[in-house]
Write a structure and sequence with these properties.
47% of the residues lie in helices and 12% in strands. By secondary structure, the protein is an alpha/beta fold. The strands form 3 sheets. A 4-stranded mixed beta sheet has the order 3-1-2-4.
Length: 358
Protein backbone atom coordinates (compact mmCIF):
# COMPACT_ATOMS: atom_id res chain seq x y z
CA UNK A 1 0.00 0.00 0.00
CA UNK A 2 1.44 3.32 -1.05
CA UNK A 3 -0.01 6.59 0.05
CA UNK A 4 0.41 10.11 -1.21
CA UNK A 5 3.71 11.76 -0.27
CA UNK A 6 1.68 14.50 1.39
CA UNK A 7 0.47 13.07 4.66
CA UNK A 8 -2.31 14.66 6.72
CA UNK A 9 -1.16 17.19 9.27
CA UNK A 10 -1.03 15.50 12.67
CA UNK A 11 -2.32 17.11 15.83
CA UNK A 12 -1.70 14.61 18.67
CA UNK A 13 -4.43 16.02 20.92
CA UNK A 14 -6.97 16.15 18.10
CA UNK A 15 -5.98 12.65 16.94
CA UNK A 16 -6.50 11.30 20.47
CA UNK A 17 -10.02 12.76 20.50
CA UNK A 18 -10.73 11.24 17.11
CA UNK A 19 -9.42 7.85 18.18
CA UNK A 20 -11.71 7.98 21.21
CA UNK A 21 -14.65 8.62 18.85
CA UNK A 22 -13.61 5.61 16.74
CA UNK A 23 -13.40 3.38 19.83
CA UNK A 24 -16.89 4.56 20.82
CA UNK A 25 -18.14 4.13 17.23
CA UNK A 26 -19.66 7.58 17.68
CA UNK A 27 -22.13 8.45 14.83
CA UNK A 28 -22.01 12.12 15.85
CA UNK A 29 -18.44 12.23 14.51
CA UNK A 30 -19.29 10.81 11.07
CA UNK A 31 -19.51 14.26 9.49
CA UNK A 32 -16.25 15.43 11.05
CA UNK A 33 -13.56 13.02 9.81
CA UNK A 34 -12.71 9.55 8.50
CA UNK A 35 -10.01 7.16 9.63
CA UNK A 36 -7.81 5.14 7.29
CA UNK A 37 -6.07 1.83 8.00
CA UNK A 38 -2.60 1.55 6.50
CA UNK A 39 -2.51 -2.26 6.52
CA UNK A 40 -5.77 -2.72 4.57
CA UNK A 41 -5.81 0.40 2.42
CA UNK A 42 -9.40 1.27 3.34
CA UNK A 43 -11.02 4.17 5.16
CA UNK A 44 -14.12 4.22 7.36
CA UNK A 45 -16.45 6.56 9.20
CA UNK A 46 -16.03 6.66 13.00
CA UNK A 47 -19.29 4.74 13.56
CA UNK A 48 -18.35 1.92 11.18
CA UNK A 49 -18.91 -1.61 12.45
CA UNK A 50 -15.72 -2.76 10.71
CA UNK A 51 -13.16 -4.67 12.77
CA UNK A 52 -11.30 -2.31 15.08
CA UNK A 53 -7.73 -1.68 13.82
CA UNK A 54 -4.61 -1.15 15.88
CA UNK A 55 -3.97 2.47 16.74
CA UNK A 56 -0.52 2.51 15.16
CA UNK A 57 -2.02 1.55 11.78
CA UNK A 58 -4.53 4.42 11.72
CA UNK A 59 -4.32 7.91 10.28
CA UNK A 60 -7.08 10.52 10.14
CA UNK A 61 -8.44 12.70 7.33
CA UNK A 62 -10.89 15.58 7.49
CA UNK A 63 -12.87 14.26 4.50
CA UNK A 64 -13.39 11.10 2.47
CA UNK A 65 -12.05 12.95 -0.57
CA UNK A 66 -8.79 13.60 1.26
CA UNK A 67 -8.48 9.92 2.18
CA UNK A 68 -9.12 8.87 -1.42
CA UNK A 69 -6.58 11.44 -2.59
CA UNK A 70 -4.05 9.69 -0.37
CA UNK A 71 -4.77 6.35 -2.07
CA UNK A 72 -7.32 4.80 0.28
CA UNK A 73 -10.60 3.23 -0.87
CA UNK A 74 -13.93 3.23 1.01
CA UNK A 75 -14.84 0.22 3.09
CA UNK A 76 -17.78 -1.74 1.66
CA UNK A 77 -18.98 -2.39 5.19
CA UNK A 78 -18.77 1.32 5.88
CA UNK A 79 -20.93 2.06 2.85
CA UNK A 80 -23.58 -0.35 4.12
CA UNK A 81 -23.36 1.23 7.55
CA UNK A 82 -23.89 4.69 6.04
CA UNK A 83 -27.02 3.49 4.22
CA UNK A 84 -28.45 2.11 7.46
CA UNK A 85 -27.40 5.19 9.43
CA UNK A 86 -28.96 7.46 6.80
CA UNK A 87 -32.30 5.65 7.05
CA UNK A 88 -32.21 5.80 10.84
CA UNK A 89 -31.35 9.50 10.77
CA UNK A 90 -34.20 10.24 8.33
CA UNK A 91 -36.67 8.33 10.52
CA UNK A 92 -35.49 10.19 13.62
CA UNK A 93 -35.84 13.62 12.02
CA UNK A 94 -39.28 12.67 10.67
CA UNK A 95 -40.26 11.83 14.25
CA UNK A 96 -38.97 15.21 15.44
CA UNK A 97 -40.94 16.95 12.68
CA UNK A 98 -44.11 15.24 13.89
CA UNK A 99 -43.32 16.39 17.42
CA UNK A 100 -43.02 19.99 16.20
CA UNK A 101 -46.19 19.69 14.11
CA UNK A 102 -48.22 18.45 17.08
CA UNK A 103 -46.76 20.69 19.80
CA UNK A 104 -49.05 23.38 21.24
CA UNK A 105 -46.08 25.74 21.53
CA UNK A 106 -42.80 25.49 19.57
CA UNK A 107 -40.29 23.28 21.45
CA UNK A 108 -36.90 24.86 22.12
CA UNK A 109 -33.75 23.68 20.34
CA UNK A 110 -32.50 22.12 23.58
CA UNK A 111 -35.72 20.14 24.02
CA UNK A 112 -35.66 18.87 20.45
CA UNK A 113 -31.99 17.94 20.67
CA UNK A 114 -32.63 16.02 23.89
CA UNK A 115 -35.47 14.12 22.20
CA UNK A 116 -33.09 13.24 19.35
CA UNK A 117 -30.31 12.21 21.73
CA UNK A 118 -27.86 14.72 20.28
CA UNK A 119 -26.11 17.89 21.30
CA UNK A 120 -27.98 21.05 20.21
CA UNK A 121 -25.20 21.94 17.76
CA UNK A 122 -25.12 18.51 16.11
CA UNK A 123 -28.92 18.23 16.07
CA UNK A 124 -29.23 21.63 14.38
CA UNK A 125 -26.82 20.53 11.65
CA UNK A 126 -28.46 17.13 11.09
CA UNK A 127 -31.98 18.60 11.05
CA UNK A 128 -31.03 21.18 8.42
CA UNK A 129 -29.26 18.55 6.31
CA UNK A 130 -32.37 16.34 6.32
CA UNK A 131 -35.09 18.96 5.84
CA UNK A 132 -33.33 21.92 4.24
CA UNK A 133 -34.60 24.12 7.08
CA UNK A 134 -33.35 25.03 10.51
CA UNK A 135 -35.53 23.75 13.39
CA UNK A 136 -36.70 27.33 13.98
CA UNK A 137 -37.67 27.85 10.32
CA UNK A 138 -39.51 24.52 10.24
CA UNK A 139 -41.35 25.43 13.43
CA UNK A 140 -42.33 28.82 11.98
CA UNK A 141 -43.59 27.19 8.79
CA UNK A 142 -45.60 24.67 10.83
CA UNK A 143 -47.21 27.48 12.82
CA UNK A 144 -48.01 29.40 9.65
CA UNK A 145 -49.65 26.29 8.20
CA UNK A 146 -51.74 25.74 11.35
CA UNK A 147 -52.66 29.41 11.41
CA UNK A 148 -53.88 29.43 7.80
CA UNK A 149 -55.99 26.37 8.51
CA UNK A 150 -57.17 27.75 11.84
CA UNK A 151 -58.25 31.07 10.39
CA UNK A 152 -60.69 29.14 8.25
CA UNK A 153 -61.93 26.81 11.02
CA UNK A 154 -61.88 28.80 14.28
CA UNK A 155 -64.75 30.91 15.54
CA UNK A 156 -62.46 33.87 16.19
CA UNK A 157 -59.10 35.17 14.99
CA UNK A 158 -57.85 35.13 18.60
CA UNK A 159 -58.58 31.41 18.95
CA UNK A 160 -56.74 30.68 15.70
CA UNK A 161 -53.70 32.65 16.88
CA UNK A 162 -53.46 30.75 20.16
CA UNK A 163 -54.22 27.39 18.51
CA UNK A 164 -51.32 27.98 16.11
CA UNK A 165 -48.92 28.20 19.07
CA UNK A 166 -48.49 31.95 19.58
CA UNK A 167 -48.32 32.94 23.24
CA UNK A 168 -49.97 36.30 22.72
CA UNK A 169 -51.68 38.41 20.10
CA UNK A 170 -48.90 40.97 20.14
CA UNK A 171 -46.22 38.40 19.36
CA UNK A 172 -48.24 37.14 16.43
CA UNK A 173 -49.01 40.55 14.97
CA UNK A 174 -45.27 41.32 14.90
CA UNK A 175 -44.86 38.59 12.28
CA UNK A 176 -48.29 38.44 10.65
CA UNK A 177 -47.26 40.26 7.46
CA UNK A 178 -44.52 37.72 6.82
CA UNK A 179 -46.82 34.78 7.51
CA UNK A 180 -49.91 35.93 5.65
CA UNK A 181 -49.05 39.00 3.60
CA UNK A 182 -51.96 40.89 5.21
CA UNK A 183 -53.81 41.17 8.51
CA UNK A 184 -55.12 37.83 9.82
CA UNK A 185 -58.72 39.00 9.68
CA UNK A 186 -58.33 40.02 6.06
CA UNK A 187 -56.68 36.68 5.25
CA UNK A 188 -59.45 34.81 7.03
CA UNK A 189 -62.01 36.76 5.01
CA UNK A 190 -60.43 35.68 1.73
CA UNK A 191 -58.44 38.86 1.23
CA UNK A 192 -61.10 41.29 2.47
CA UNK A 193 -59.78 44.87 2.36
CA UNK A 194 -56.75 43.80 0.29
CA UNK A 195 -56.43 45.67 -2.99
CA UNK A 196 -54.95 43.78 -5.89
CA UNK A 197 -54.59 45.46 -9.24
CA UNK A 198 -54.56 43.25 -12.30
CA UNK A 199 -54.80 43.23 -16.06
CA UNK A 200 -55.13 40.52 -18.69
CA UNK A 201 -53.38 40.75 -22.01
CA UNK A 202 -51.97 38.63 -24.81
CA UNK A 203 -48.46 37.46 -25.53
CA UNK A 204 -46.97 34.90 -27.89
CA UNK A 205 -47.65 32.20 -25.25
CA UNK A 206 -51.35 32.98 -25.07
CA UNK A 207 -53.29 34.90 -22.45
CA UNK A 208 -51.32 36.46 -19.60
CA UNK A 209 -52.58 37.88 -16.29
CA UNK A 210 -50.39 40.15 -14.20
CA UNK A 211 -51.47 41.06 -10.65
CA UNK A 212 -49.85 43.37 -8.13
CA UNK A 213 -50.40 43.72 -4.38
CA UNK A 214 -49.07 46.54 -2.25
CA UNK A 215 -45.87 44.51 -1.87
CA UNK A 216 -45.16 43.78 -5.53
CA UNK A 217 -46.05 41.52 -8.44
CA UNK A 218 -47.95 38.64 -6.84
CA UNK A 219 -49.09 36.66 -9.89
CA UNK A 220 -48.01 36.11 -13.48
CA UNK A 221 -50.39 33.52 -14.91
CA UNK A 222 -50.38 32.01 -18.40
CA UNK A 223 -53.17 30.16 -20.18
CA UNK A 224 -55.51 29.89 -23.13
CA UNK A 225 -58.65 31.38 -21.54
CA UNK A 226 -58.42 34.94 -20.10
CA UNK A 227 -61.60 34.44 -18.05
CA UNK A 228 -60.16 31.34 -16.44
CA UNK A 229 -57.04 33.25 -15.40
CA UNK A 230 -59.21 35.88 -13.70
CA UNK A 231 -61.18 33.16 -11.90
CA UNK A 232 -57.90 31.63 -10.73
CA UNK A 233 -56.91 34.98 -9.23
CA UNK A 234 -60.35 35.32 -7.61
CA UNK A 235 -59.98 31.85 -6.09
CA UNK A 236 -56.72 32.91 -4.44
CA UNK A 237 -58.39 35.86 -2.69
CA UNK A 238 -62.17 35.60 -3.15
CA UNK A 239 -62.92 38.71 -1.05
CA UNK A 240 -60.04 40.91 -2.13
CA UNK A 241 -60.78 44.09 -3.99
CA UNK A 242 -59.65 43.30 -7.52
CA UNK A 243 -59.05 46.52 -9.41
CA UNK A 244 -58.56 46.73 -13.16
CA UNK A 245 -55.27 48.33 -14.06
CA UNK A 246 -55.11 51.93 -15.21
CA UNK A 247 -52.81 53.34 -17.88
CA UNK A 248 -49.85 53.27 -15.49
CA UNK A 249 -50.48 49.63 -14.65
CA UNK A 250 -50.80 48.75 -18.33
CA UNK A 251 -47.24 50.02 -18.72
CA UNK A 252 -46.12 47.60 -16.00
CA UNK A 253 -47.96 44.75 -17.75
CA UNK A 254 -46.18 45.66 -20.99
CA UNK A 255 -42.86 45.37 -19.16
CA UNK A 256 -43.80 41.91 -17.88
CA UNK A 257 -44.92 40.82 -21.35
CA UNK A 258 -41.62 42.04 -22.79
CA UNK A 259 -39.81 39.98 -20.17
CA UNK A 260 -41.83 36.85 -21.05
CA UNK A 261 -41.01 37.36 -24.73
CA UNK A 262 -37.28 37.77 -23.96
CA UNK A 263 -36.44 36.37 -20.48
CA UNK A 264 -32.76 37.23 -20.88
CA UNK A 265 -33.69 40.91 -20.49
CA UNK A 266 -34.55 40.35 -16.83
CA UNK A 267 -37.40 41.83 -14.81
CA UNK A 268 -36.51 44.76 -12.58
CA UNK A 269 -39.74 44.86 -10.55
CA UNK A 270 -40.44 43.95 -6.91
CA UNK A 271 -42.06 40.55 -6.42
CA UNK A 272 -44.54 39.58 -3.73
CA UNK A 273 -43.41 35.99 -3.17
CA UNK A 274 -45.54 34.03 -0.71
CA UNK A 275 -45.07 30.40 0.18
CA UNK A 276 -43.83 28.06 2.87
CA UNK A 277 -40.28 28.48 4.09
CA UNK A 278 -39.20 25.51 1.96
CA UNK A 279 -40.96 26.79 -1.17
CA UNK A 280 -39.34 30.18 -0.81
CA UNK A 281 -35.90 28.54 -0.52
CA UNK A 282 -36.56 26.68 -3.77
CA UNK A 283 -37.92 29.76 -5.57
CA UNK A 284 -34.99 31.89 -4.43
CA UNK A 285 -32.58 29.27 -5.77
CA UNK A 286 -34.42 29.07 -9.11
CA UNK A 287 -33.97 32.81 -9.61
CA UNK A 288 -30.18 32.27 -9.61
CA UNK A 289 -30.32 29.96 -12.66
CA UNK A 290 -29.21 32.11 -15.63
CA UNK A 291 -31.09 32.09 -18.97
CA UNK A 292 -29.96 29.26 -21.20
CA UNK A 293 -29.01 26.99 -18.31
CA UNK A 294 -30.84 24.02 -16.79
CA UNK A 295 -30.74 22.19 -13.50
CA UNK A 296 -32.37 18.91 -12.58
CA UNK A 297 -34.78 18.68 -9.67
CA UNK A 298 -32.15 16.70 -7.77
CA UNK A 299 -29.51 19.38 -8.43
CA UNK A 300 -31.85 22.06 -7.08
CA UNK A 301 -32.44 19.91 -4.00
CA UNK A 302 -28.70 19.58 -3.46
CA UNK A 303 -28.08 23.32 -3.88
CA UNK A 304 -30.61 24.22 -1.19
CA UNK A 305 -29.02 21.68 1.16
CA UNK A 306 -31.83 19.08 0.96
CA UNK A 307 -30.59 16.36 -1.42
CA UNK A 308 -33.42 13.99 -0.46
CA UNK A 309 -36.18 16.52 -1.09
CA UNK A 310 -36.41 16.02 -4.88
CA UNK A 311 -40.17 15.45 -4.84
CA UNK A 312 -40.73 18.47 -2.60
CA UNK A 313 -38.69 20.59 -5.02
CA UNK A 314 -40.93 19.45 -7.90
CA UNK A 315 -44.02 20.32 -5.84
CA UNK A 316 -42.61 23.79 -5.08
CA UNK A 317 -42.08 24.32 -8.83
CA UNK A 318 -45.69 23.33 -9.43
CA UNK A 319 -46.89 25.80 -6.76
CA UNK A 320 -45.11 28.75 -8.40
CA UNK A 321 -47.53 31.59 -9.26
CA UNK A 322 -44.96 33.82 -10.98
CA UNK A 323 -44.39 32.37 -14.44
CA UNK A 324 -40.93 33.07 -15.91
CA UNK A 325 -40.06 35.51 -13.09
CA UNK A 326 -39.41 32.42 -10.97
CA UNK A 327 -37.97 30.30 -13.80
CA UNK A 328 -39.18 26.80 -13.05
CA UNK A 329 -39.03 26.21 -16.83
CA UNK A 330 -35.26 25.86 -16.35
CA UNK A 331 -35.71 22.76 -14.18
CA UNK A 332 -35.84 19.32 -15.81
CA UNK A 333 -35.55 15.70 -14.78
CA UNK A 334 -32.16 14.09 -14.25
CA UNK A 335 -32.52 12.09 -17.49
CA UNK A 336 -33.14 15.29 -19.48
CA UNK A 337 -36.91 14.81 -19.77
CA UNK A 338 -38.79 18.13 -19.73
CA UNK A 339 -41.42 16.79 -17.27
CA UNK A 340 -44.47 18.85 -16.31
CA UNK A 341 -45.10 22.58 -16.18
CA UNK A 342 -47.94 24.41 -14.46
CA UNK A 343 -48.74 26.33 -17.65
CA UNK A 344 -48.26 23.46 -20.10
CA UNK A 345 -45.24 21.57 -21.43
CA UNK A 346 -45.50 23.31 -24.82
CA UNK A 347 -44.99 26.70 -23.16
CA UNK A 348 -42.04 25.29 -21.21
CA UNK A 349 -40.46 24.06 -24.44
CA UNK A 350 -41.02 27.44 -26.11
CA UNK A 351 -39.47 29.36 -23.20
CA UNK A 352 -36.46 27.05 -23.23
CA UNK A 353 -36.14 27.44 -27.01
CA UNK A 354 -36.07 31.24 -26.63
CA UNK A 355 -33.20 30.89 -24.20
CA UNK A 356 -31.21 28.70 -26.58
CA UNK A 357 -32.00 25.41 -24.89
CA UNK A 358 -33.14 22.21 -26.59
Amino acid sequence: MSTSPTKPTSDPKKDDQRWAAVLARDPAADDQFVYAVKTTGIYCRPSSSARMPKRENVEFFDTAAAAEGAGYRPSRRSAADRTTASAQRAALIAQICRLIDNAETPPSLDVLAEQAGMSPFHFHRVFKAETGLTPKAYSSAARARRLRQGLGDSATVTNAIYDAGFNSNSRFYETSAGLLGMTPRDYRDGGHNAEIRFAVGQCSLGAILVAQSLRGICSILLGDDPDRLVRELQDMFPKAQLVGGDAGFEKLVAEVVGFVEAPALGLNLPLDVRGTAFQERVWQMLRTIPPGRSLSYSEVAERIGSPRAVRAVAQACGANRLAVAIPCHRVIRRDGDIAGYRWGVERKLELRHREGQD
